[in-house]
Every structure is written in structure tokens, then in C-alpha cells.
Specification:
With about 325 residues, the chain is of the alpha+beta class. The protein has three domains: about 130 residues, Beta Polymerase, domain 2, CATH 3.30.460; about 80 residues, no CATH class; about 60 residues, no CATH class. The strands form two sheets. Strands 3-4-2-1-5 form a five-stranded mixed β-sheet. It has a two-stranded antiparallel sheet with strand order 6-7. β6 and β7 form a beta hairpin. The two termini are about 20 Å apart.
């Protein structure tokens, strides 16, 4: 499985993206949703996102434990992998991004072994009405970022970035020595040393960008349309997916409405139009929750047995 290759990466970089014990790997994000805009397109603001599930070494379960999440960013590739116990825990909470892995079309699966098949075969375990709270919570977060990210906040972040980059600090990583953090810089919002501005920028990124770094193209789009159109597309998509899931018990990851979602992502909708549609969908989601015939909670005992079975399949 470590022989999986990714276009534009060396074998060593490809190996670094993936953990040992991998049982399931697939595309997530824009590729999975049929909304990917290639980087050679001038409108592209997308990375290639992948998600994996792995069974850790025996020491993880019998010793003091190991990290449960592995994240790597290399070039345009953005990879996150979850240890299977952590992954199933997120499934039990109906985490939208994690659930999507169990309903991926086969063409979006990069790797799946027998243990990964067991996860997909038992996906009905995680089909519950709890989806309303997780999907709507995620959507509300996107809605808040979209509506609260005004021109004043954009300008403040731009000033932080200007001061930070002027001292040779990578804006992707924001790593600085204590000596750099102590440097006095032009004051922004009462902050006059570089360390406080780095911390403020990290905090604002978590609030408005879901923790990520916003590239130049996406920044320009935000400035042009007055709101984060990519967040808006996520908002509308997640609300629609949640409503479908509550009514059908199926997650439609590859979107039939991708063309309309791409219109939103490109900033072709006004902010008022996005707000009107999202408010309509929030109402429909509440109605779907009330009418849904899905079980209220998952069978945790069955999920635990599945988790133990999968770990045993790999660590015999």
C-alpha cells in the first residue's frame, strides 16, 4: 500500500503522506463532490484532498498509545488519516467528512483492503438522526464564517501577514523562533510585537478559514465578491447532504447539483442569495429531522465489536 503514487510527488513524498497499517484511502473534498477545479485553471482554489483510515501497531492499543491522526501537506496534496478507533468514534457522532468515506463511489477509492471493506459493509451502523446535529452544526459554522468575515477583518489579516512575511516567516507554517516573536513591528489592533500578531493570525484563520491557509487566488475572490465563496459552497452542500441523509439514509457524496455549487464557489451568487438559500435549507433540515424514520442513536456495542474485529484482522 505504500507503493501508492500521486502525480507530482516522488515515491518518498507519497510514502510520507500515508501511515502504516492503511486499510482505506479515498478522495475527499472537491474531487469527491465533483467540484474540483484543476490548478491549471485560473479560477482554481483547490487542493487534492485525501483521507485514510489505518490500524495502528499493537503498541498503540497495549502500550501508552500513539497519535490518532496523521496530517501531511505536500504540494497540492492535503492528506489526513485516522486511526480506526478514532475514525469509528467520529462515525458514531455522524461527522460529515468522515461519513463520506463510506459512501464514496468506487472510482474515488484509492485503496481498500478486507478490513476497509468491513467498514463500508457496516455503514448502516452509523445511519442515525444524530446527523441533524452534526451536519447542521458544521453548516452553521460555515454560515458564521461567511457572514462575519468582513472587509475590516480581511484588512487586519493582510496587515498581520505583511509584518510576518517581512521577517522571513513562512505564512503557511507560521513557525517563529522566540527571537523573531519578540521583534517589535508596526502595531495592528493594539499588537506591537511579532509573536502576538502570529497568534492573532492563527486565531483568525481558525475562525474564518477552518484553520487553513488561504492562498492568493482565494483571497482575491473574497475581496472581489465580499465573502468567502468557498465557505458558502460548503454551507449549501452540507445542508443538502444532511437533508438527504435524514430522509433517505444515504449520503450522496458525488453531487448531482455540482454545477450550481460551482457557481457559488466561483462567487457567481450574491451574498444575499446564499443567505436566502441557506436559511431555506436550515428550515428544511429541521423538518427532515422531525419526519426522519432513522434510529435516534447508533448501536455502540455493535460498533465496538466491529472495531475490535478490524483491529484483530490487521494485528493478528
Amino acid at each position: 500500500m505504500n507503493q501508492i503514487s500521486f502525480k507530482g510527488l516522488s515515491e518518498e513524498q507519497a510514502r510520507d503522506l500515508l501511515p502504516e497499517g492503511l486499510i482505506l484511502l479515498g478522495y475527499r473534498g472537491s474531487i469527491a463532490h465533483n467540484m474540483y477545479i484543476p490548478q491549471n485553471n485560473p479560477d482554481s482554489i483547490d487542493d487534492k484532498d485525501i483521507m485514510g483510515v489505518y490500524v495502528a501497531a499493537r503498541e498503540h492499543y497495549l502500550g501508552f498509545g500513539r497519535p490518532e491522526v496523521k496530517e501531511r501537506f505536500i504540494g497540492e496534496w492535503d492528506a489526513v488519516s485516522y486511526e480506526v478507533r478514532k475514525f469509528i468514534g467520529l462515525l458514531l457522532k455522524c461527522n460529515p467528512n468522515v461519513l463520506s468515506m463510506l459512501w464514496l463511489p468506487s472510482r474515488h477509492l484509492i485503496y481498500c483492503n478486507a478490513a476497509g471493506d468491513r467498514l463500508i459493509e457496516n455503514r448502516d451502523l452509523f445511519v442515525t438522526k444524530q446527523a441533524y446535529h452534526s451536519f447542521n452544526g458544521y453548516a452553521y459554522g460555515q454560515f458564521k464564517r461567511m457572514t462575519h468575515f468582513n472587509q475590516e477583518k480581511q484588512a487586519e489579516m493582510a496587515r498581520y501577514e505583511e509584518n510576518i512575511s517581512a521577517h522571513g516567516i513562512n505564512l503557511d507554517e507560521l513557525n517563529a523562533t522566540q527571537e523573531q516573536r519578540d521583534i517589535q513591528v508596526p502595531e495592528v489592533n493594539g499588537r506591537a510585537n511579532l509573536g502576538s500578531q502570529i497568534d492573532a493570525l492563527k486565531s483568525m484563520r481558525r475562525m474564518y478559514y477552518s484553520g487553513g491557509y488561504m492562498g492568493a487566488k482565494r483571497k482575491e475572490l473574497v475581496k472581489r465578491v465580499g465573502y468567502d465563496a468557498k465557505n458558502a459552497a460548503h454551507l449549501i452542500r452540507i445542508l443538502r447532504m444532511g437533508i438527504e441523509f435524514l430522509m433517505e439514509g444515504e449520503l450522496h457524496v458525488e453531487r448531482a447539483d455540482s454545477e450550481q455549487l460551482l457557481e457559488i464557489k466561483r462567487g457567481e451568487w450574491t451574498l444575499d442569495k446564499v443567505k436566502t438559500e441557506s436559511e431555506r435549507l436550515f428550515r428544511l433540515a429541521e423538518e427532515a429531522y422531525i419526519r426522519s424514520t432513522l434510529p435516534p442513536h447508533p448501536d455502540r456495542d455493535r460498533a465496538e465489536r466491529l472495531c475490535m474485529e478490524i483491529i484483530s484482522m490487521v494485528n493478528q
